UniProtKB/TrEMBL annotation:
Gene3D superfamilies: M75 peptidase, HXXE motif (1.20.1420.20). Residues 48-346 form the Imelysin-like domain. InterPro entries: Imelysin-like, Imelysin-like_IPPA, Imelysin_sf. Residues 307-334 form a coiled coil. The keyword Coiled coil applies. Keywords: Coiled coil, Signal. GO terms for cellular component: cell envelope. This is Iron-regulated protein A.
Length: 373
């Protein structure tokens, strides 16, 4: 009996030890000799923080032009305000994919770029003069899309738009709302940037393990999620009717300004490719990246050059996208087949990133996929 009990105890110890070792293996840092910390340092120091700093500067300029317009609402000041809005919106395309840290905590992107904007909510807020722009109920009444409406969509022409800020019975309400939306965008961006530069950067770059909550894994998942949902679906697929029974042209980004929807999509695609390749935000320096990681692992296994395939397919998608009308609303209504062809090319990138790349990196998808690969 004692021998049987001793054997049972010994078996239990062996089993527990084996399970512990197995769990440690699955949650430990990568054993592939790739410098994951260098990847994170390049992402933080040369891409994410510089892009946020640029956006912060753009929004400071936008605030200044907003104050000038509110003081003197005329055509020149409206044009300047629109110019600064577009500059900041294009920079935003380099920031939106990084939904990590404070950005995730405060739902940054939800308060910056939910489109189409809800014009009824905007008008109700202006009419009441009482609103909480941080409320989730107002996510579709703030940010860049709300400014798109306030700067381009209030009237049939520029003269009519300026009237809302001058002769309208509630001109002060329109001025206040315009001002509050821009101030909120600036405050949110400052909050995210300050967190990166004060404490989060060091936490971020030190999280190198291959776990669901590590920086390397979360960052690549956020990157792919943005590409799949924020770029492929929102900018092209949804307006083209890929996920509905009919095309939805009024779902395009930059609906009211009319001519910037393709430009914003092209900028976003460039931002995606730059990040994948580790290109610095404000210069041409190439650093350690997910492309580097993929290349190392594929070379070690003798597999095909996935990095080249991803870049080649992004170029194919860019070629299709670049052929579209500057106004994607018109493109959907006049020749939606071209939109669908562009979506198909973008979708091929999704498969390479979400399936081939993640399998190569041995990283699991951490978000729910509602529309398949």
């Amino acid at each position: 009996m004692k021998i049987k009990q001793l054997a049972l105890a010994l078996f239990s110890i062996i089993l527990i030890t084996a399970c512990t070792e197995s769990n440690d293996d699955s949650t430990s840092g990568s054993s592939d000799n790739f410098d994951r910390k260098a990847l994170l340092e390049n992402a933080a120091d040369n891409i994410i923080i510089p892009a946020l700093q640029d956006l912060n500067s753009d929004l400071t300029a936008l605030k200044a032009s907003k104050e000038t317009f509110i003081t003197t609402p005329n055509q020149t000041n409206l044009d300047n305000l629109r110019t600064d809005w577009l500059a900041a919106y294009k920079t935003w395309q380099y920031v939106e994919m990084f939904n990590i840290g404070k950005a995730e905590e405060i739902l940054y992107s939800f308060q910056m770029n939910i489109y189409p904007t809800n014009t009824t909510d905007i008008q109700n807020n202006i009419a009441s003069g009482s609103y909480d722009l941080t409320s989730p109920n107002n996510n579709d009444a703030v940010g860049f899309p709300a400014l798109d409406y306030l700067l381009y969509g209030l009237g049939n022409d520029d003269s009519a738009i300026i009237d809302f800020y001058t002769t309208d019975s509630n001109a002060l309400g329109y001025k206040n709302y315009l001002s509050d939306v821009i101030d909120q965008m600036d405050n949110l961006t400052t909050t995210v940037l300050t967190d990166w530069t004060s404490s989060y950067r060091d936490i971020f770059v030190s999280s190198t393990a291959n776990t669901a909550s590590s920086s390397v894994n979360m960052l690549v998942n956020d990157f792919i999620f943005y590409y799949e949902k924020g770029l492929r679906a929102n900018k092209v697929g949804i307006p083209a009717g890929v996920f509905s029974t009919t095309p939805l042209a009024d779902k395009v980004e930059g609906l009211y300004s009319k001519v910037y929807s393709k430009e914003l999509a092209l900028t976003a695609l460039q931002a995606v490719q730059d990040f994948f390749n580790g290109k610095a935000y404000n210069n041409s320096t190439i650093g350690i990246s997910y492309a580097s990681y993929v290349t190392l692992l594929r070379d070690n296994s003798g597999s095909s050059d996935l990095t080249a395939s991803i870049n080649s397919q992004i170029e194919a998608a860019r070629t299709e996208l670049d052929q579209l009308d500057n106004n994607l609303y018109n493109q959907v209504n006049n020749n939606n087949v071209a939109m669908l062809m562009t979506y198909d090319e973008l979708q091929r990138v999704t498969v390479l990133l979400k399936v081939d790349m993640l399998q190569t990196l041995n990283i699991s998808v951490d978000y729910v996929d509602a529309d398949g690969d």
